[in-house]
Amino acid sequence: MHYDVVVVGLGAMGSAATYQLAKSGASVLGIDRYLPPHALGSTHGDSRITRLAIGEGAEYVPLVHRSHEIWRDIEAQTGAEILRQCGGLVMASASTQPMHGSEAFLDHTVATARAFDITHELLDADDVRRRFPHFSLRGDEIAYYEPSAGLVRPERAVEAQLQLARSFGATVALGERVLGLDDHGSHVSVRTTQEIVEAGTVVVTAGAWLPELVPDLAPSLRIYRQVMFWFDLADPSAYPNHRDSPVFIWWHGAARTDMFYGFPMVDGPAGGAKVASEQYDEVTTPDDVDRQVTDAEVLAMAERHVRDRFPGLGRNCVKTRACLYTVAPESRFVIARHPAMAGVIVASPCSGHGFKHSAAIGECLSQLALKGESVLDLSAFGFPA
Ligand SMILES: Cc1cc2nc3c(=O)[nH]c(=O)nc-3n(C[C@H](O)[C@H](O)[C@H](O)COP(=O)(O)OP(=O)(O)OC[C@H]3O[C@@H](n4cnc5c(N)ncnc54)[C@H](O)[C@@H]3O)c2cc1C
User: Fold this and answer.
1) Domain residue ranges in the chain
2) Rounded distance, CA 310 to CA 303, Å?
3) Which pLDDT tens digit goes with each residue over 33-86?
4) Structural contact between residues 113 and 144, judged by C-beta atoms closer than 8 angstroms
């Protein structure tokens, strides 16, 4: 069997690439070892933050703009609600705000908004309290507010893109694991648990499993377990404010561990308010990771971040999930042709902030595979040396 392109891994990136390839008229096979959307990789947990002024760097801004356009188009085609622009706050009271490779994330966000003319407001603590009374602030915070920021529904995005990919003629093979790739120069062989298929180009979007399939990347990528928590509502009268809340990223101290982020209650009063922080102390693998979340972890999250800042929330979780960050050097992305296998394109755009760019990255991967270059500039995301 021969395809123009085989896509390995159908999470956020692979489902987007498979859809865009099929829409372009290519013969495409998308393969996943599980049944996406699933909860074993990096693309689950109901919501992801999106924001246009990207504090991680100006080079990401065109990707998120294009992703918003694509999601609106996908919503029109499928009827799924994927992007909710409920606004977003980035808030800090210390002069350092370390996140995703940036030591001054809030300052970079403001600078990017100004450079790209992105509508925003700068608020003090009183402004935030007045507009969003469910946040309990200390008083010395400053905040960046972006009305176009919000959240994306990751599972719905994957489902919709796979549905559209199939409707444009893509073959989607689920529950089939790719074992290895052999680049023959003229084509690439893809060995799976069930067959060997040939492709002009292979796009590898295997998330945390990438180091298994592309061992050259293993020294550059670190996998970290992260946990998402959905806290219950202690005060029912707080629900409308939590329902209509902006997404937020909030430092209540100067350390990386003083940051947490969260979302509006998107699934009703019983669905809980989702919050999470980040950890970079212990590396793991998709095989070894502990997917259970302990009571001690729930208690630590409640005490460290939630209790003093959201008086309307309780201390119990209605849901918890473990998830995987695949982190590249300096928390950047890798989206590039493999230097030693010309028929293989690799995409590792995670580092904890990839989802908001995924629809555009899929389009770029399709253009790279079919035309040799993408409309948006990917030169900042080369293969690590
Ligand atoms: C807790 C958490 C919070 C996050 N928050 C945000 C956020 O707020 N905003 C944001 O923009 N980003 C966020 N991110 C990052 C974002 O979710 C990721 O960048 C994105 O989901 C990565 O998608 P992916 O397609 O690379 O990986 P995945 O979705 O994991 O997909 C990889 C796929 O490859 C398949 N696969 C692997 N090996 C094989 C094989 N051998 N054969 C066949 N299939 C294979 C897997 O089954 C899987 O489906 C967050 C990530 C996490 C974990």
Assistant:
1) 2-45+154-219+329-381, 88-147+222-327
2) 11
3) 999 999 999 999 999 999 999 999 999 999 999 999 999 999 999 999 999 999
4) yes
Distances (CA, A) of 143 to 11, 109, 140, 175: 33, 11, 10, 45
Q: Helices 12-23 and 358-371 sit at what angle, rounded to 10 degrees?
A: 50
* pTM for the predicted model, two decimal places: 0.98
Q: Is the CB of 211 under 6 A from ligand 1?
A: no
Answer whether 2-45+154-219+329-381 and 88-147+222-327 agree in fold: no
The response to whether residue 302 sits with its C-beta less than 6 Å from ligand 1 reads: no
Place of tokens 């992305």: 333
CATH of 88-147+222-327, one of 3.30.9.10, 3.40.50.150, 2.10.60.10, 3.40.50.620: 3.30.9.10
Question: Closest Cα to residue 189, out of 382, 56, 344?
Answer: 344
What is the Cα–Cα distance from 192 to 181, expressed in whole angstroms? 9
| Whether residue 46 has its Cβ less than 6 Å from ligand 1 | no
Q: Which of 228, 84, 83 is nearest to 160 (CA)?
A: 83
Distance CA 7, CA 170 (A): 10
Q: How far is the CA of 20 from the centre of ligand 1 (A)?
A: 18
DSSP class of 158: H
Top CATH class of 2-45+154-219+329-381 equals: alpha beta
| Residue pLDDT, tens place only, 252-295 | 999 999 999 999 999 999 999 999 999 999 999 999 999 999 99
Q: Is the distance from the beta carbon of residue 32 to the nearest atom of ligand 1 less than 6 Å?
A: yes
Instruction: Name which residue sits closest to atom 23 of ligand 1, judged by CA.
Output: 12
Q: Is the CB of 286 under 6 A from ligand 1?
A: no
